[in-house]
Amino acid sequence: VRMQYSGGIFKIVEWADVTNSHIVSGSSSIASLREDGLPKNRGLLLLAQMSTSDTNTGAGSVSSCIDIAKQYPDFVFGFISQQALIPSDPKFIYCAPGVSLQINEDKKGDGRGQSYNHPEQLILRKGIDVIIVGRGIIEAKDPLEAAKQYREAGWKAYIARLEQGNTSKL
Predict the structure, then answer these.
(1) pLDDT tens for each residue of the chain, 170 residues long
(2) Are strands 43-47 and 18-21 parallel, antiparallel or unpaired?
(3) What is the reported pTM?
(4) What CA–CA distance (Å, rounded) separates 142 from 68?
(5) Which one, of 27, 63, 61, lies nearest residue 44 by Cα?
(6) Which three-class secondary structure string do you get for 36-75?
(7) What phi and psi, each to the nearest 5 degrees, are found at residue 166?
(8) 85: helix, strand or coil
(9) Smallest Cα–Cα separation from 15: which of 33, 34, 40?
């Protein structure tokens, strides 16, 4: 993991302020990333939950992510997840994939395992700070207009969360 981050032809640590990592290889891999990233004022998001229906990121994996984040608080600053994992600690930010403006009760996925949530559900009800949108933008007839719609929906949900007095993570 460290060689992918600091070595090779890309030298990610040299240009990426934020990267993400899973914890499959354990906390030692996060320690290695930290060793090279921290002196360059870099930060890390841990991949705790996915938006696919058959994801292998169960409760044990999520708990391990939380433990590792707490072990390296000067380097790990958040999670890729489907909800706020440590709502009582405002230090962490939460970024959620699997976002769509086209949600209805009959179809909450793509039929290929991907599950979707509306920005309002993620931000207002689940404590997410950043939405990660893929197909909703890149497959749109007008990607720029779609990006604007997602930005507006996300901002509207964030303002609603603040108006509820909910400045914490739920």
Answers:
(1) 888 899 989 999 999 999 999 888 889 999 999 999 999 999 999 999 877 655 555 567 789 999 999 999 999 999 999 999 998 889 999 999 989 998 655 556 555 556 788 999 999 999 999 999 998 999 999 999 999 999 999 999 999 999 987 665 55
(2) parallel
(3) 0.86
(4) 41
(5) 27
(6) HHHHHCCEEEEECCCCECCCCCCHHHHHHHHHHHHHCCCC
(7) -100, 75
(8) coil
(9) 40
